[in-house]
């Protein structure tokens, strides 16, 4: 199929591995899905320590279930990316380990304390879900199918995250102060989640033309603010002064983007931000440390007979 | 010969199994399937496949998930109004899945 036909036919779930897609399409889709898959994995590793840190058994169970989901999302997405025939799963995992694989800005920052968890589990998951819900209509069908399962599961993540936020925001004075501090640290990063204004985004035009992306960064940032800014206020969080956010008469939010640290953002985008490199390396170490588990499982699967493996539900 | 029938309601949606038809060949099977399953319900496409072509594994031969009580991993268990439309959608999909589990 030539590029003009692709653009003409571009629509929700229009293309699948049965179609002969041009290289430009397959490369753009690979870049987008690989980024998404990497982000799921890096997010899971960022949150993993909080299975142990969780203050109650319920929270521990929920956190371990959520982390399991995120890793599953990563695996599903590597499959969807692999179906484009540009890179193998192995290759993409290697790129993630050696620091070539790119992923979401928010997952480059380490998390130190339990009070920070709703910043990821509520706001970042909430922002991600806004985007993911639109990707159910992406043109690469295997990607859309992965989104069906991801979005099915995300509802739990966000409600769980909000439930932690609610607990902290209605807790002791100390807890309220700590969660406000965490919010001030994370808020600018969360705003940057959607990237800079569209004129500066290099990949959007093509991805939109071939139906891979359904909404622009600006539209997504806007709809995120519409939905989640009132939530922050509802829990008594004070919106930090920077960046300045103003509402025009139509109710739309305007973010003073030049007040945000784009130098750091682009450093992160190139995997050159030190704390982010730390995240990449610590994931690699954690992954390598359980090599023996994968080996044991492989061995078990090739030698064990008549024993159905337990489903991971 | 038995043909299993899968109906798709609209473009991009999943084909879901809706029953079977008896027919001597594929062409007839498609025709019967249209009459039986595509007349009264909005339909975008229909698939038929010979019954013996379906692969199956059932609960005797596999351990499936979704039967243990893991309340903590369901959106419906958190007493909080959904933050956004897509969160509410996800929650109602989960509620449907829960109902199906309860039916067993
Ligand atoms: Fe996820
Ligand atoms: Fe999530």
TrEMBL record, chain A:
Biased composition (Basic and acidic residues): 1-11
Single GO biological process annotation from the record: phenylacetate catabolic process
Signal peptide: none
Any one cellular-component term (Gene Ontology): cytosol
Database matches in SUPFAM superfamilies: Ferritin-like (SSF47240)
TM segment ranges: none
Gene3D superfamilies: 1.20.1260.10
GO molecular function: phenylacetyl-CoA 1,2-epoxidase activity
Pfam families for this protein: PaaA_PaaC
Region of interest (Disordered), residue spans: 1-21
Top-level lineage group: Archaea
Protein name: Phenylacetate-CoA oxygenase subunit PaaA
Source species: Halococcus thailandensis JCM 13552
UniProtKB/TrEMBL annotation, chain B:
Residue spans of biased composition, Acidic residues class: 86-95
InterPro entries: PaaB, PaaB_sf
Top-level division of the source organism's lineage: Archaea
Region feature (Disordered): 84-104
Protein name: Putative enzyme of phenylacetate metabolism
């Amino acid at each position: 199929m030539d590029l003009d036909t692709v653009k003409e036919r571009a629509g929700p779930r229009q293309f699948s591995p049965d179609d002969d897609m041009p290289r430009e399409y397959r490369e753009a889709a690979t870049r987008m899905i690989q980024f998404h898959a990497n982000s799921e994995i890096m997010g899971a590793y960022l949150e993993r320590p909080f299975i142990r840190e969780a203050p109650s058994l319920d929270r521990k169970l929920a956190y371990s279930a959520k982390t399991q989901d995120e890793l599953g999302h990563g695996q599903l997405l590597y499959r969807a990316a692999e179906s484009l025939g540009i890179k193998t799963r192995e290759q993409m995992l290697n790129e993630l380990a050696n620091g070539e694989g790119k992923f979401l800005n928010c997952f480059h920052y380490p998390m130190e304390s339990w009070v920070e968890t709703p910043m990821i589990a509520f706001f970042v998951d909430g922002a991600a879900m806004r985007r993911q819900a639109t990707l159910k209509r992406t043109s690469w069908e295997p990607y859309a199918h992965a989104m069906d399962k991801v979005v099915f599961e995300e509802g739990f993540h966000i409600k769980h995250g909000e439930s932690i936020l609610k607990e902290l925001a209605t807790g002791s004075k100390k807890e309220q102060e700590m969660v406000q501090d965490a919010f001030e640290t994370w808020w600018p990063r969360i705003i940057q989640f959607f990237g800079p204004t569209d004129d500066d985004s290099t990949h959007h035009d093509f991805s939109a033309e071939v139906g891979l992306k359904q909404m622009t960064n600006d539209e997504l940032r806007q709809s995120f603010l519409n939905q989640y800014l009132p939530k922050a206020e509802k829990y008594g969080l004070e919106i930090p002064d920077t960046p300045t956010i103003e509402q025009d008469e139509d109710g739309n939010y305007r973010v003073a983007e030049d007040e945000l640290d784009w130098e750091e953002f682009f450093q992160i985008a190139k995997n050159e931000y030190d704390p982010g490199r730390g995240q990449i390396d610590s994931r690699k170490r954690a992954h390598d440390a359980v090599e023996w588990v994968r080996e044991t499982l492989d061995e078990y699967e090739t030698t064990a007979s008549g024993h159905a493996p337990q489903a991971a539900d | 010969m038995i043909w299993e029938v899968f109906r798709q309601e609209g473009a991009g949606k999943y084909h879901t199994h809706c029953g079977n038809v008896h027919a001597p060949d594929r062409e007839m099977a498609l025709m019967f399937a249209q009459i039986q399953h595509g007349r009264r319900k909005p339909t975008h496409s229909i698939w038929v496949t010979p019954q013996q072509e379906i692969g199956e594994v059932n609960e005797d031969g596999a351990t499936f998930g979704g039967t243990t009580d893991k309340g903590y991993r369901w959106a419906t268990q958190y007493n909080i109004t959904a933050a956004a439309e897509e969160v509410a959608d996800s929650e109602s999909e989960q509620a449907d899945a829960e109902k199906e589990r309860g039916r067993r």
